[in-house]
Write a structure and sequence with these properties.
Protein name: Putative YccA/Bax inhibitor family protein
Keywords: Membrane, Transmembrane, Transmembrane helix
Strand content: under 5%
Organism: Prauserella shujinwangii
Number of domains: 1
Number of helices: 7
Shape: globular
InterPro entries: BaxI_1-like
Largest sheet: none
Number of strands: 0
Distance between the termini: 46 Å
Helix content: 55-70%
Structural class: mainly alpha
Order of helices and strands: HHHHHHH
């Protein structure tokens, strides 16, 4: 199995089913279209994972995040209007911390669990909803723009992957992991230095901040190619269907990161 910049995909099981695996995003020849060679009957728990499994689980996770996020955003706007920012900040920090803890547990323990993945999705919904509610009060309409922007990037990168416009080669993978590492180091350095009053200009809304945000969005977008490739490899290897929840979690991590960065970039333009 290939490696990925997304920690959720680094340790997917490598067990292949006997007689060939199910098709991934690229369809094999023969067998039932979209499902590879005929398979022996198996229980729901141990049958090979399919694209449909990934789509359904990812859709369910995204749906939970959107639902919780919308409710939280509406609540946050009411709190901001009532000058109760403390409650909003509490929800924001609480959602972020719970989401981070769940993400670390799922990624490093390699948990293919519907409750854990959906709990992560709900926590991110609270976190994103609280942030979005505040931004929406400051810049009306920014939430819809960020959602549409995130969806647009996701669809474009899926098309890029399916058409093979950009090949996920070992060289590409090394470049992407290097770019991701560089972005994370800069973010961490900016955070640490800001605590000591040093402004690197990466998050102040200026020209450098806009350029940096565009670079981060680009890295997040191209990370989808690695995520799609790892999901494809997992399907081809015939990993159990339950691991679709693990793949869904990995895709959600990238989606959350991309949405936050697009929201930030849009705020730069609207605050000018």
């Amino acid at each position: 199995m290939r490696t990925s910049s997304n920690p959720a995909f680094r340790n997917l099981p490598r067990t292949a089913v006997a007689g060939g695996g199910y098709a991934g995003f690229n369809q094999p020849q023969g067998g039932v279209p979209g499902y590879g060679p005929p398979q022996a009957p198996a229980g729901a728990a141990d049958r090979p994972m399919t694209v449909d499994d990934v789509v359904v689980k990812t859709g369910a996770s995204l749906g939970v995040t959107l639902l919780v996020g919308i409710v939280t955003a509406i609540w946050a706007q009411g709190q901001v209007a009532a000058d109760s920012m403390g409650a909003v900040m509490g929800a924001m920090i609480g959602g972020m911390l719970v989401g981070l803890v769940l993400a670390l547990i799922i990624a490093f323990k390699q948990l293919a669990s519907a409750p854990m993945t959906l709990a992560y999705a709900a926590a991110e919904g609270v976190f994103l909803g609280a942030i979005t509610g505040v931004f929406e009060m400051l810049y009306p309409g920014i939430a819809l723009q960020a959602i549409l922007g995130t969806a647009g990037v996701f669809v474009v990168m899926l098309v890029v992957y399916k058409t093979g416009a950009v090949k996920v080669t070992p060289k590409f993978r090394k470049w992407m992991i290097g770019a991701l590492g560089g972005v994370l180091v800069l973010m961490l350095a900016n955070l640490v230095l800001s605590l000591f009053g040093v402004n690197m200009g990466l998050r102040d809304g200026g020209t450098l901040a806009i350029i940096f945000s565009l670079v981060v969005i680009g890295v997040a977008a191209f990370s989808f190619l690695l995520d799609f490739d790892m999901a494809d490899q997992a399907i081809r290897a015939g990993v159990p269907a339950k691991f679709a929840w693990y793949v869904a979690f990995g895709l959600m991590v990238t989606l959350v990161w991309l949405y936050l960065e697009i929201l930030r970039l849009l705020s730069y333009f609207q605050s000018e």
